[in-house]
Design goal:
Length: 294
């Protein structure tokens, strides 16, 4: 294919692919336009749309199945067991309620809109609505509270919340570690509950951090000892260079003898006589010996 034919072929390919891509747009150009005047008009959501959570509290049994199923622990439930003579009524499906529900809260800031909590609800009181407008300028409005039953005056709501939700949400309601959770059960590879897992993992991490800190301290002490030893050896080497060995050191000079004072008896006798020089020897007289002098 020569250059001119390739040129016109590229033009044809460009036009044909553009028309193919515009088919959907051209189809909607011939259809009537639909515009919603939001917020006065709203598009209806489809049947299984997962919107804002809602709990029909009169049918809630306080089983906390939803809190255990939530992957982000955004649901907290506080309940108290009913007395023997108390009748709390039944739900719509005939389930007898045995727990007072004093608190049921959902933190929608954490919610994933996954719908797992609604799937495990035994009475189907927890549902996801078609409400999708959840924007707000107030953080407090993101926490939905559904419980309407007031706890008795002597009921410690905070301590009970900490104790009950620690089982299903140990990260938010940590509290003190249970000593039974610090060791794995016999034959188990992990603790049985979420609180047990949290306690066990936290304890293991603390032990690892403690061992690392001890190793770091030991390494620092060993380094300091090595530095002190090297400094001592360096000082000893410098001293050995400035001072010669014991055998090469010069002998110490003897101090000059002090003049001795003569005894008292010698001083009284006067000065000592000076020694006299020996008399000069005269040559022999040759005449007297019968010789001649020359």
């Amino acid at each position: 294919m020569n250059g001119l034919a390739r040129y016109f072929r590229n033009i044809f390919d460009g036009i044909s692919t553009t028309l193919a891509g515009m088919q959907v747009t051209m189809h909607y150009l011939r259809s009537p336009h639909t515009t919603l005047q939001y917020p006065k008009e709203r598009m209806p959501m489809f049947e299984r749309f997962r919107g804002l959570l809602h709990n029909r509290i009169e049918d809630c049994t306080g089983c906390s199945a939803c809190a255990r199923a939530c992957p982000v622990d955004c649901i907290s439930v506080v309940t108290m067991k009913a007395g023997k003579d108390e009748d709390l009524g039944t739900t719509r499906d005939g389930t007898q309620k045995k727990l007072h529900v004093y608190e049921y809260k959902i933190d929608t800031l954490k919610c994933l809109w996954c719908g797992l909590c609604t799937e495990v609800c035994p009475t189907h009181c927890l549902t996801m609505t078609s409400e999708y407008e959840v924007s707000s300028n107030d953080r407090a409005s993101w926490e939905l509270s559904f419980a309407v039953e007031e706890p008795p005056p002597d009921f410690d709501l905070v301590a009970t919340r900490l104790k009950q939700n620690r089982v299903v949400n140990p990260m938010a309601y940590a509290g003190e570690a249970d000593p039974r959770h610090l060791e794995l059960p016999a034959g188990a590879s992990r603790p049985e509950t979420a609180a047990g897992v949290y306690d066990y993992v936290t304890h293991q991490q603390a032990e690892i951090a403690k061992a690392a800190a001890a190793a770091k301290a030991a390494a620092a002490a060993a380094k300091k000892a090595a530095e002190e030893k090297a400094a001592a050896e360096k000082a000893a080497a410098e001293q050995a260079v400035t001072e010669p060995p014991e055998g090469e050191r010069p002998a110490a000079e003897k101090p000059a003898a002090e003049p001795t004072t003569p005894p008292a008896d010698d001083a009284a006798a006067g000065p000592a006589a000076e020694p006299q020089a020996p008399a000069e020897t005269q040559p022999p007289d040759t005449e007297a010996d019968g010789g001649t002098r020359g």
